[in-house]
Amino acid sequence: MNNIIGILIVIAVLALAIVGIRRRSKKGGCCGGGGSPVPVREKKLEGRVLGKKVVTISGMHCEHCVNNVTNAINRIDGASASVSLARGEAVVSYDREVDERQIARALEQAGYRVEKISGV
Fold first, then answer.
1. Can you give the pTM of this predicted structure?
2. CA dihedral 63, 67, 72, 74 (to 10 degrees)
């Protein structure tokens, strides 16, 4: 009976490991990198910069992550990002009021965690 329980535990652990590996491989690796990097969509704001916010982000591991974060923020109307992997942050410039929840939501949907948002 103990042998059967041990075998079932090993099977369960292996199944969980396989599921995790499949999830990561679908994303292209630990951070979704895999393959060639996603190009950054350069964005110039339409109006003059009204302000900046510093967003502290966890979950960035490589330049591919930097590009993903940059593109996620640049898709927000009125916002443009400059992202630093070394500092784990993005400086978001904006030419109109941008809701911090919108920034957080865009980054979380891209697979990253917002630790803090503060004004400059």
1. 0.70
2. 140
